[in-house]
Amino acid sequence: MANPLRGGSFDVQDQQLIGLPENEKMDVVFNVTINDKIFSFSKPLLYKFTDPVKGELYEPVVIVPSVSVSISPSLVILSSNRQNTVTPEITVQANADLEKRFRISSTLDRKEFIVADTLLKMKKDERRIFRADINGIAPNSSATATASVTTPTGIHQTGLRKISYDHIPDIYYEYRDSTRIAALDIKTVGTRAGYIAGAGDKVPDALMQMGYRVTILEENDIIIQNLKQFDVIITGVRAYNIHTWLTGAYSTLMNYVKEGGVLLVQYNTNNSLGPVKATISPYPFIITNKRITDETATVNFLLPQDPVLNYPNRITANDFTGWVQERSIYHAENIDSAFRKPLGIKDPGENEQAGSLIVADYGKGKFIYTGLVFFRELPAGVTGAYRLFANLIAGRRD
């Protein structure tokens, strides 16, 4: 990807490239003269090699930069009670034998941090890791750090990635890595979270960034004595769609809530899900296909004094700025009166919906179902999503 996304679309500056399945291949042009007539034709430049099992294979020739650079991790969260300096790792890879002066640096919102400025001798495919100390992130804001390597022959800002499958030629592409840094004015309640993995979301990583100790729970772990150690149990996106054993765990999870735990169920799809009111929640509701697709849609606080909007963080309209791709999906409907519906959202020209977040007290604990797309917002470093998520998973105030 040559340029980063702009909103929900790719930034393609050369419009003639749109529609091409891949970059143009390198061709060799042959000029042949027969009976004083010149004929020209071209052939792709390919690299042929022999695999002992597959036989002769052909791959396109790829020209790569002499140096590749990447930065990790992709996301760092700075909460209000942690240090304000982050130390991402910058990896420099030599794609050829090199001996030259390198200046390795990281940039955060146009401010450059010099990591190293020295003569380096590197062999082909050798990697070196450098650490960058980055500070100056304003509270309750986010910024993006990138890395670059400056040599006498130019500035290198991209890493090299490869897509390799047996049924297609190898595809190489350059990609500019970045580290998203979010400095949060956030308070959290509790320290231990149990997570029932869903369909590949990264919410557990976000929980750890918030300071929680996260344990991934399997079927054999759903025992009431085991669950008592957790301040909150969270089910990943579509967990009830992919784990049939969760239906059998219903009574144990409800006992956990009744005795004071917090159970947060992220969205599930309603296709082939079955009677969810008997297996997900202490009170009935149904899951629909309704959603809010406009990530900038206005969010109305229907219950502005509700605890999930005030404890331990006071949620305001500012916490819904900067969301990516959408607001929420697979809303609840036919909702039992035991539930509170704190938020109302609507797409432009549509009716307001109140099923993106429903909360019910049950015994000493609380149950939550939400279609809000935390699985997108938390990995993207959206500060307001972290603050609201911290409120949802906080235990009840006595």
Radius of gyration: 26 Å
Computed structural class? mainly beta
Biggest β-sheet description: 6 strands, mixed
- End-to-end distance, in Å? 51 Å
Helix content: 10-25%
**Beta content:** 35-45%
Q: What is the general shape?
A: elongated
Low-confidence stretches: 272-278
Describe this structure in words.
Helices cover 11% and strands 37% of the residues. The chain is built from seven helices and 25 strands. The strands form eight sheets. Strands 6, 8, 9, 11, 12 and 15 form a six-stranded mixed beta sheet that branches. A six-stranded mixed beta sheet has the order 17-16-18-19-25-24, with helices on both faces. A three-stranded antiparallel beta sheet has the order 5-7-10, with no helix packed on it. Strand 13 and strand 14 form a beta hairpin. The longest helix is centred in the last third of the chain and has 10 residues, at 383-392.
